[in-house]
DNA sequence: AATACAAATGTAACCGGTTACATTCAAATC
DNA sequence: GATTTGAATGTAACCGGTTACATTTGTATT
């Protein structure tokens, strides 16, 4: 493997000149530059980026903490992250944490050990919390599911408003008993969406029935099971609002299995607008989130933080859209 | 940020002793060790991994080239990769290439620039092909969709046998005109599966009808469109074999849209057994691939290559399984 | 021609670890 | 007490770039 000294020798110049030729060609005379470049290609020289990064104390790597990579919504967010990072010359270290806090802390420590410059966390947990850093300008951005008092920039949806909009859609269709399949208990995202759901009920003068709220974990299986519980409860709902499309797909399967029709007997709505939402039968009514934009925004906020450009907005709220398809209909 | 010299000073020893205390504690006297460890925690010392990697010329990073991260099958493969890599102390740099060869080459060059130790490529393209390396023991493993004459270890499925098995299942149900929605033309994976399909037809004495072969690109949309073409062709098939579950889900939607029932009028089968396969309506008959095992195997082969342990099998073929669900039935 | 000044290039310290080799020190052996 | 031996520790080179500072070269000015 050739290094900069070999190239310098070949070109008959000093290592500094080689370095300068590659980093700021304009301050090297054309003749020398040509000689150096010839030597570079002769030696098939590729700078050792480990050395560069070590010296310059920047890796241009970003760590991304993803709760589950197999969730199609996150897959889209990651797509956006990847695209924006590449455009700005950063690489992405993707970490499938499965929500394990020790794993998250482990990956986050890539920053303190200088293997990466910053972290994008897609879940409401601060992996630096225990660290000395704690509240100084963290090299972190929190997106999608956001902490209540984040010590860092955030990108999120107005989940409360989105949930309210979707619930209102169901109420407009005449539904009064609306079940909800929630995300994990501790998630602020779930809390906000439940709040939005309550807002809509209250505005319509419908009393909240706690029995209609079932926990899930965003997977189709949990949607399937939760729907089973809702069908079994007395005074069963005529509509079910699921906090993710994946759960909605599971719920629809369960409803059909009970011999009921969607939306004939029960309306089902999702959240996220993943690709499969429009291929489900019936196609899902859902809230479309701009998944790729989440990723792109998170990257720009993080790079702004890293490069000390903090004039930009620190907390971004992205727009949502109610997409009405065939899985919701008038109350029978 | 504290470094090893600060710790050495604090403990009143040399930097070498600090390094030794952390890397091979047994050759340091207990008293010194205690002093050093105290200094380490006092200074909140974390070794700069960039420096370590630079010096040791190993990054313990693996680059993974994924055609599309939003494909749920790949998501599972990645899960397996991540898990195995972590177990063996490696990090994963995930790259969503979208099949662009320049992007693939770019990411692969992280190896030549020493940002990563090796590459796992999930597509049939050798990103080092142009490089000087070419055929020396490449720090690469090719998995899932595999090159015909790979210069590196591989992990794959016997796609031909799998396609034959699935086609035989359809023939056993009485189908004689079986459509196929293929993957991209150039893919060896597609070629092998078509070969298996032909094997089964030939064994059953059914003539091949080229018009029943439609190209797709593994997405639900392409399955939807291809199914439309198959429905329109005269002598339309009574069964459709799709080379991915995602395409099968698209195809089912199209068939239903034409007012036909699955499997009453037309059977549809997929390939991969993604999570949604069992949540589709009707649930998909498909070939289950051990996706996570692909990832794990690829990682072990790569690390074997990197660490010079080459006694292990160089080409792994993983088992498949025919999963019969509700989307296939007897010929009407 | 002498001086001033800018441009081009060279020299060497530096980043923060690792490790070969040198040195010190204490216990063991004669 | 002198010598041997091995364990513990220290010294400093090294990895491969970058860059502050020094030096050389070339051009413009008087």
From TrEMBL, chains A, B:
Gene3D superfamilies: 3.40.50.2300, lambda repressor-like DNA-binding domains. The keyword Transcription applies. One of its GO terms (molecular function) is DNA-binding transcription factor activity. InterPro entries: HTH_LacI (IPR000843), LacI/GalR-like_sensor (IPR046335), Lambda_DNA-bd_dom_sf (IPR010982), Peripla_BP_I (IPR028082). The keyword DNA-binding applies. Keywords: DNA-binding, Transcription, Transcription regulation. It comes from the Bacteria. Pfam families: LacI (PF00356), Peripla_BP_3 (PF13377). Transmembrane segments: none annotated. Residues 2-56 form the HTH lacI-type domain. This is Transcriptional regulator, LacI family. It comes from Modicisalibacter muralis. The lineage of its organism: Bacteria, Pseudomonadati, Pseudomonadota, Gammaproteobacteria, Oceanospirillales.
């Amino acid at each position: 493997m050739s290094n900069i000294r070999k190239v310098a020798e070949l070109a008959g110049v000093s290592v500094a000149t080689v370095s300068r030729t590659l980093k700021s060609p304009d301050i090297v005379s054309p003749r020398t530059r040509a000689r150096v470049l010839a030597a570079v290609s002769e030696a098939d020289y590729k700078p050792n980026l480990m050395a560069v990064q070590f010296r310059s104390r920047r890796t241009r790597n970003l760590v991304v903490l993803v709760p589950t990579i197999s969730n199609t919504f996150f897959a889209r967010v990651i797509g956006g992250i990847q695209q924006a990072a590449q455009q700005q010359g950063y690489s992405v270290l993707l970490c499938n944490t499965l929500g394990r806090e020790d794993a998250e802390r482990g990956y986050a420590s890539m920053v303190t050990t200088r293997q990466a410059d910053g972290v994008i966390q897609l879940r409401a947990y601060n992996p630096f919390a225990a660290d000395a850093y704690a509240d100084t300008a963290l090299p972190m951005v929190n997106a999608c599911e956001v902490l209540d008092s984040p010590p860092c920039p955030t990108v999120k949806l107005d989940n409360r408003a989105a949930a309210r909009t979707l619930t209102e859609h169901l109420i407009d269709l005449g539904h009064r008993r609306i079940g909800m399949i929630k995300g994990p208990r501790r998630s602020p995202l779930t809390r906000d969406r439940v709040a939005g759901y309550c807002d809509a009920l209250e505005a319509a003068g419908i009393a909240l029935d706690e029995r209609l709220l079932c926990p899930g974990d965003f997977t189709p299986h949990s949607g399937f099971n939760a729907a089973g519980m809702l069908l079994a409860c007395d005074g069963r709902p005529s509509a079910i609002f699921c906090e993710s499309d994946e759960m909605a797909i599971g719920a629809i399967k369960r409803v059909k299995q009970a011999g009921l029709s969607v939306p004939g007997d029960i309306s089902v709505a999702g959240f996220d607008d993943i690709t499969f939402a429009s291929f489900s039968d019936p196609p899902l009514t859902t809230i479309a989130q701009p998944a790729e934009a989440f990723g792109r925004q998170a990257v720009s906020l993080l790079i702004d933080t890293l490069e000390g450009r903090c004039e930009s907005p620190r907390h971004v709220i992205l727009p949502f859209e109610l997409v009405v398809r065939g899985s919701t209909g008038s109350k029978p």
